[in-house]
Amino acid sequence: MTTINDVAQAAGVSPATVSRVLNGGRVTAERAERVRRAAAELGFAPNRVARSLRMRRSSLVGLIIPDIENPFFTALARGVEDAAQRTSFSVVLCNTDGNVDKERRYLDIAVAERMAGVIVAAASQSRTDVSPLQSRGIPVVAVDRRPGGAGVDAVLVDNEEGGAAATTHLLARGYRRIACITGPQGASTAEERLAGYRRALRRFLDADGGAAATHATPSAPTTSAHDVDLLHDYTRHADFKVEGGYTAMTDLLALPQRPDAVFAANNLMAVGALQAVREAGLEPPEIGVLSFGEVPWAPLVHPGLTTVQVPSYDLGRTAAGLLLDRISGKEQPLRTVVLRSSLQIRQTTAGPA
């Protein structure tokens, strides 16, 4: 069956533009003609009930996120709410726990409640499906994670660069057996941060070559091409939660040659990793610990936790701005905004003893 996405692809426009044409919205004559021609050629018949729903859209905006307990998403939600409130929209918060089935139910609710638009941090890059919203003309903006194959506006973080910066910092401080605890396989944020970690290690080896041996200490064997071959031994996939970080770090510490530092690809896993390190009778910076994502207490504990700071509030605020533009009917191409992260250096990465 032909969908609104098929028509959008054939006409070279967004699904939202197709919806506006079919519902009599303001679109340039040239684009309207392309949409009508594509719809006729594909035999697309708009759903009259869906069209009716769109015309009676509410003032509610949905925000679908995977973990409200994570301070990153708490700040992101605040950014969305502050932006929405200034234009008299109310935000409905939906927590999926990273479960695609739960996420699908929330998407169905967004349709049933005729929400004006939805911001979604996808539970799965490959399985999250926002087409039920798009086919009904409900604007969608992806935040933090982009659903695979979905033609939507997106606000993302420079995850790979952040992962590379974190790993480069650990190398510069003298750590050589650097582990990475990343998120679930298939999660775009997890894979991008892992890619940054690996890129930094390869770049270090290419630049340093055999000179790495000169700086080795008894507790830090030389970094060599052999270590890169065994890179997977220091990589663990977890669940972006405290328990996952704890389990992964416990496993890493049990290796015959344990890592001397760990890059945790989100803040909650860093908490779990720290717990495992201390239960093993160790203390940073003897084992360096670095978190992708700030936690409120990071500068207050001793030693202070080094983090890759992410502008989570700005992510939410920017995503809300893009969504409100779509709701207002502004005619514009799909947009992707990438916000930069920054390294906040504290004592947990001061260097091995």
Spell out the blueprint of helices and strands:
Layout: H1 4-11, H2 15-22, H3 29-42, H4 48-55, E1 60-65, H5 71-85, E2 90-95, H6 100-112, E3 117-120, H7 131-134, E4 140-143, E5 153-157, H8 159-172, E6 178-182, H9 188-208, H10 225-229, E7 235-237, H11 242-253, E8 261-264, H12 267-279, E9 288-292, E10 306-309, H13 312-327, E11 336-339, E12 342-344
Parallel strand pairs: 1-2, 1-3, 3-4, 4-5, 5-11, 6-7, 6-8, 8-9, 9-10
Antiparallel strand pairs: 10-12
Helix pairs in contact: 1-2, 1-3, 2-3, 5-13, 8-9, 11-12
Task: Tell me what you see in this structure.
There is one protein chain. Strands 2-1-3-4-5-11 form a six-stranded parallel sheet, with helices on both faces. It has a six-stranded mixed sheet with strand order 7-6-8-9-10-12, sandwiched between helices. The chain folds into three domains: 1-46, 434 Repressor (Amino-terminal Domain), CATH 1.10.260; 57-157 and 312-341, Rossmann fold, CATH 3.40.50.2300; 159-309 and 343-349, Response regulator (Rossmann fold, 3-Layer(aba) Sandwich). The protein has 13 helices and twelve strands. The chain has helices at 4-11, 15-22, 29-42, 48-55, 71-85, 100-112, 131-134, 159-172, 188-208, 225-229, 242-253, 267-279, 312-327, and strands at residues 60-65, 90-95, 117-120, 140-143, 153-157, 178-182, 235-237, 261-264, 288-292, 306-309, 336-339, 342-344. Mean pLDDT is 87; it is low at 51-55 and 210-230. The protein has 353 residues and is α/β, with parallel strands linked by helices. The radius of gyration is 23 Å and the shape is elongated.
